[in-house]
User: What shape does this take?
Amino acid sequence: MESMHLQNVRVWVGDGCWRTELPIVDGCIAASSGGSAFDCGGRVATPGLVDAHVHFVMGAQSRGGIDLSNVGGRAPFEATLERAHRALPAGEWLIAQGWNESQWGDGASTPTKRWLAAMGDRPTVCWRCDLHAAVVNQAVLDRLDLPADAPCCQSGLLVEAQAWAHLVPALPEPALEDVRRAVVDASGWLNSMGITGIRTMEYRKQLEDVLDVVSSQLSLRTTVTLLDRTLPLDVGWLANRSAQLPRVIGCKAFFDGTLGSRTARMATPFLDRGDCGQWVECAADNTDVKWCEQVQRAGLAPSIHAIGDAAVARAMALLVDVPDAVVGTIEHAQIVPEDSLEVLAQIRLSVQPTHRAEDASTAMESLGAARVARMLPLRTLHNAGARLAFGTDWPVTSPDPMRTLAAAITGRTVSGEVLHGDQTIDNEVAIHAMTLAAAEATMLPTAEGLIPGAPADVVVWDADPFTWQGHEPSPRPWAVFVAGRCVYSLTGAC
Assistant: This one.
């Protein structure tokens, strides 16, 4: 029996409860002290952070990719690609990610294949930050089964199903060993931010070829929501999975697109586009009820990507009748439908405050004041009793949890302005949403907090996250424990 105890520490157990030491025996919180002492120097400790929504394999690969998130318009966009083009071997695809035209100022245009002219015949793909659109060059278009007169063939901009159904299958497969190595490295990197658990959205192939193979090397508790969603659902293979592998807990459907791409499904038109966005996949072909029934029959949790208010309303209507024990979730819920609080309070909401911060730059122009007021109103949702679980949607946004918490407690947008400051929440509510509530929504065993018998997933902070006002520098992990084992230390203390 291995035992230790954290001492000289202020431990937030959860839900307003504190203690002054934390005994750990065999990886779990114990009722009484014993074993070796670990001096925390008077610091504050919390349960480990849980990211309720990531794309782990894709995020791990993105760390070594070509980053367009900081380019400020066409000239730096093209310059970044040209540098990468010169460095790549002949014949290799150039794949970049992260551009966001809404951050480029007034009058900024969306990239087209003309921006990729310098790539010549090198196949080039540049994903928008939300991964719901990509601009490609002619060398890629020639490889896709698209009608020659399709508008996307003229612009090179593939949106929603064009990108998923035509582009993704044509992309070259990376070497599995490289992907597996990236995932193991990313596990420790997330630990260094205080993240001890994740729910990741993956296809069966990514799960079996990558996550299952390296699962014993990961220092993250991991549950999986499957992205495979073709009906009839093929999930019989789950019965043969070992309990030692990441647990598959649900399936995800897409009802609409994103605000940035103007493909989120709205009840009334976008002001700058004149249409209401898109229904996609099972919402477009009206198989959403059938999909939800099949997911539940398989013993899994239905999770629904819904961003526009019309899509959120449709997801609400579907999930409100799903038994609470099934743990269904609406993912994102960025525009809350009018008069919906009573129903939303009955459904778990897996949300990303950083999406609100990033989409705010064009929200007034595209949505108008009335709908901006319904843009993830955290305080109103919390006061109504909504169950908020925080995540990042990495690699769509940064996995840094302090950016998520800062967006929630300050209301600051990426431009530094405050959007509806009356909709911020306090530090403890935000931390709860990224620890206990996130663990509950993702079926991780840390949902009860740091109580006797619970897993000893703990973050000791270098500064108090409960008194932090959301500005830089932010508190950072001083030591991180998963199942009582120190997986990260800022100073080599463990």
